[in-house]
Structure formats: structure tokens, C-alpha cells
Amino acid sequence: MKLSYSLRMRLSILFFLTLIVPLIIIVFVMPSYYQKLITTDTTTLTESSLTSLTHNIETYLEDLERLTVTPYWSEEVMRALKAKANVSYESTDAYSQFLTDKALNVTLPNFLKNPRNDILGTILLSYDGSVYVTSAFKNEPVDNYPFTEQGWYKQAVEADGKVSFISAHAQDYLKKPTITQVFSVARLIKDPDSKQPLAVMKADADTVILEKIANDIKFNVRSIVAIFDEQHHLIYSTASLPQELQQKLLFPALNGQTIDEYVVVSKKVTQANWNIVVLLDNSELKAKLEGIYIVGLLLAGGGIVLTLLVFFTLSQWIIKPFREMTFVMKRVQKGELLTRVAVRGKDEVAELGKALNTMIDQLKELIDSEYKAVLNQRDAEYRALQSQIQPHFLYNTLNGFIGLNRVGDRRLLEKSILSLSSMLRYILEHNDWSTVAEEMLFIKKYGELQQLRFQDRLTLDLYTDPAATAYLLPKLLLQPLVENAIIHGIEPLNRSCTLTVSCLIHNTQNEEALVITIRDDGAGFAPDKVDDSVAIGLTNVRNRLLIAYEHADIHIWSESDQGTLVTITIPLREVRL
Predict the structure, then answer these.
(1) Cβ atoms 475, 430 nearer than 8 A
(2) How far apart are the first and last CA of the chain?
(3) Which of 82, 357, 418, 457 is the most exposed place for a label (fewest CB within 10 A)?
(4) How high is the pLDDT of residue 387?
(5) What are the DSSP calls for 285-342, one per residue?
């Protein structure tokens, strides 16, 4: 019986639906629901805090942005930038050049003075390639530095007067960089009248200010704050972020989704098109539910133990009698018809056991009667087939004697009659079976009888595997085949022919088998031109063979003027000793 159709499986499903499912809901679904609720509340609070953080960063970026428009506040500085941008600047008088340099080296730094230490300074790149650095640390630009080839410079030029926010980078353009990484705001300074570009202004800020702003915001679980620019490059993070995690944050998930054990909350800094991402430690959120899980697991464990005790008690009480009946029916199926079910009680199961015992009794009586009838029928059929062989053999043998008498060879006739009498004793014995050795001895005598008649025209070659001599065969199974080979294969020809009979044990199709072959190199026949007497003899042999052995096989090959080969294969497991 398949497990899916068993009574135990149906009881298991019933218990599962009535007890286990509610326990699963209590243990797993409810904590998951509360975890989701806590995650949602934490995400909402984080979004509120992130709004404040974003506002602080935007305020700081506005301060940097104001520095980049400082040249527009001074007419003196703007005149100096216009003069620098004029192609004839080098040919102007020394006093005009002095005023220009004074405006850019003295006036502009006075305007750019800033009390905030985290704003590190500015750098102004005029149209003629001059570089003006304003810094509290009195820095100077690197000689012959290729400013115009830098990405931030090109970005400012492409913005065409609008502010450009530059991601974290090194101050490698200064001889004495104050820190390793800064972020900047850059702008192309244009002539308000002609709209011609005059210079590029860039203000640098220390990334430490981002750390201060991020640390001012507190979240209710352990978290990491990361800031990415519009090209998704990391500007700053409060903790080290693996490169693989950064790649996953290139396409920010919806707020509240989980990435690598972090709940992600993000917000855009609209002014700079930056993205601020807060990674909340999901394990800390789960830790808040450990108490609920522990209580739920204890309740579930107790409930499951109690359920299993009840289940196994009831299933043993109900299923054990059915198992016993199944066991009895399997033994009956194997032929043990004396097996009975032990009936206990007076309930419906006991009534079923009594009915099964009654059925086995009736089945035994029916099998006994049918088995005896079948045996009698098979025995009658077998004896009828064997009786067909004896007169046929005698008829052909006596015809041979007539032939010897006609040619006047009385010596051969006398010897043939003696051989026949020996063979008749073998035939008339009341045994239906004979060993392979006895059958081959009979074939040898029969062949000698035929050799007296055919002389040199018949050569008989017999071989028996010593391991096969003791196996039993139906008596006279091979004689009709040998007789057909002589009469229909050798007798019609006027040349010498060889008849070979062998009995061997071979390994065929992964099992041992008794293989008997009768081969002659005589006349042969076409498969569609089989003589009636040959067909009757072969049918007789085939029927006797299949009655004796269920899985036996007989195969016949013949070709005109080539001879005939008959192969009998009997699985060794069916051959009796």
C-alpha cells in the first residue's frame, strides 16, 4: 500500500491540520508578524531621523555653494577675472596688472574668510591658467599641475555656471595637503554681461564634517550610515563597507527591505543628488524577538510531544490489527495458506479478521481443487504429445528396415534390429523424464542405426558438457529433431554430411542456461517451404518443451544447400536434477 493512501497518513494529516498548524502559526507566523511590525516601526523612525540628517548636509552644502559665488560679490574681483580672460592682458601696463593681482590675492581672500575649520579653503583657476589658493594653512598649488584635465574641472565647465558637487578625492593639487580626502563644490565663473567663462572656483571641505553630522543622529539599533554621490561612488561611511555590499547598494532597495543582514533605509540629498543610506543591523532587530521565539518554541515543543503521544497511542490501537491482517495476506500470497489472523475482541476490526480467515479457508479449498485439475490436464497433454512420438519413430525406423531387406543386406538388418530392441526398451520404460546423458546415449544408438543405412554419407558428432549430464529432459525430446535432420537434410543428398549434437552450459543474458544444438550441413530448406511432416515434428517438440519449461526457447535457422541449425535454450534455474 502506498504511504499516501495509508490510514496512518490520513490520521497524520488530521492531527496536522487540527494541532500542528495552529502551533506553527503561534510559533512562526506570529513572531514573524511582530518582527515585520518592529522593522516597519524602526524604518519609519529611521526615515524621520534621516530627514534631519539630510537637512543638515544640505545646509552644509549651501555654505560651500555660497563660497563658489563669492567672486560675484566684488566688482574689483570680477574686473580682475575679466582682465585675466582678455587675450591682451600680458600687454597691459604694469599698474593694471598690479591692481588685478591685488584683487585676486588680497581682496578675494578677505571675502573668503570663513570661521569654520572643516571648510579647508578654495582654489580659483583663472582663464589664463593662473591658480589662486585660499587656505588657513597657507598652501600652494603643485607646479604645472594639469588642472584642466581633472574630472572635477570638466564637470564644473559642463555645468556652465551651475554648482557641481564633487565626490571625495585627494588634494593632490596642493604641495601640503591637509588631509587625504575632501569633498568639494565647484562652479564656472562667467561674465554676467557677455556670459563668457572667466574662471573655475572650487571649495574643499573635510569629510570629518560628514562624520560629525552622522554621529549627531542616533538610531535605536546598531547601524551604518553611508553617503554615495550621483555616480554611486562612496563619499563617506561610519564603518567599512565591503565592495560586494557597495555593489548591491548601487540600486537602492525600497525602504525596509533587507540586504545582507541589514535593513536598508535611504534618502536623496536633492541639492547634490547624493544618496544617504542607513543600514540597520537586522540581527539586533531579531534579538528583540528572541523572548517571543523561546516562549513560542517551548509551547510548541510541549504541544508536539503531547500530540505525538496521543497520535502514536491511537494509531497503534487502530493500525496494529490492520498490519497483522496485511502480514497474513502477504504470507497467503506466498502460498502459506495455513496462516490465520489472531482475532481479539468483538468490534468491527475483529469482524473483519474473522471474515479474512473465512476467505482464506475458502481460497485454500478452491486452490486445492483447481491445482489438482490443472496438474491432471497438463499430465494428460504431456503424455499425449509423447505418445505421438513413439509410433512416428517406429514407423520411420521400420521403413528403414524394409530398405535394408530390399538390398539384401541381412547382416546390417540383424544388427539394426538388435539396436532397435535396445532403443525400444528405453522408449517403453514408464519414465517421462531422462537425464541428458541417457538422452544423448539414445541419440548415439539412433545415429548408429542410421549410419548402418547411410554408411559414409552420414558422420555423427556428439558432445556433452560433463556439468550437464545429470540434468533432466523430457524423454525423446531430441529424437524428432535428429530424425528430421537425417531424413530431410542428409537423405536427399548424394554427398557426405555431418550431423552434430551438443549439450552445453552457457551464460546467456546474465544467467546460466542449458543450450542444446542440432546442426547439419545438409540440404536445408527455405523458411516459407517447410514440409508438413517437419512442421508437425517441430510443433510437437516446441509444445513439449514449453509444457516442461515456462521460459524455454527454441530457435531454428535454415538455408537451402547450407544446412539447418536448431538451438534449444533452457534457463538452468528451471531444469531439474
Answers:
(1) no
(2) 39
(3) 418
(4) 47
(5) HHHTTHHHHHHHHHHHHHHHHHHHHHHHHHHHHHHHHHHHHHHHHHHHHTT-TT----
